[in-house]
Amino acid sequence: MTHRQTDGSGGSAEERSPVAHTVADLNLLRTFLAVYRSGSFTAAAGLLGVSQPTVTTQIRALERQSGRELFARLPRGVAPTAVAHDLAARVAAPLDALAAATGQDTAADERAAPVHLAGPAELMSVRVLPALAPLTAEGLRLRVTLGLTDPLLEELRAGRHDLVIATYRPRGRALTATPLMDEEFVLVAAPVWADRLAGRLTADAPDALHAVPLVTYAEDVPIARRYWRHVFGTRLSCPAAVTVPDLRGVLAAVVAGAGFTVLPRYLCLAELASGALVPLLEPEDPPINTGYLVQRPGRPDNPDVVRVRDLLLEAGRTW
Asked: 212 with 193: CB under 8 angstroms?
């Protein structure tokens, strides 16, 4: 007579093992989804309330089970592979439904979590934060980081931000980007300089500006260089006279008569309307740059991230 091994609970190990494996597999899939949505093992560990080594161990176990790599390890964070995108598409909705059905739906708590948004200082200050004011009045918690696109995108991949407003579309499939707005660049100076240049500056002859100080936000004068290539079809040879690492400071200096600059039109609309600044040229085809709203693939865990994203995309149509 064959005896089945029990642990005193009335059932055999063989009878209970499928359930145990199912629970284990669900835990692995929940961990996978947290990594997929957050973009890093560290961020996923914080969401799940476990240690980062635990997340690493579980992801490796799931990769062994599937026989496929799910995430490409980056210097900061991870990038989902094509296999991970497919798996997320199949398991996200069932896992979310199961969490809701078992009373583990944390939507109310997630609404209390702050949204981490990052982007250029000038655009965030002039356009983005005013647009989000209705949401903050309704209880949205917002954490804003200001900076340049390259480091902000790396931090997004590592899970430090939920959304980034980027000045260019990131390459690859590790991030998803949606066009947000077009910004037009305009060549401007205070009236005192515009009067001196009257009749001397044309689209074919920018040399008259060599005698005017150039004010810019960086030594390599990227915005002005782009304007020169697009409008004048030549390289900019003027060195910067004044550099200020914030376009609002550049604007203030030029309004005060420090020289000329190239600015996004949205940033100096009021000064152009009042006459404090004068456009030195109005080319038929001005330089345009498209800004993008960037996030990690997948449905955000925090529903407020979706609210911020949707409101910004709506507002961007009018910017």
From this structure: yes
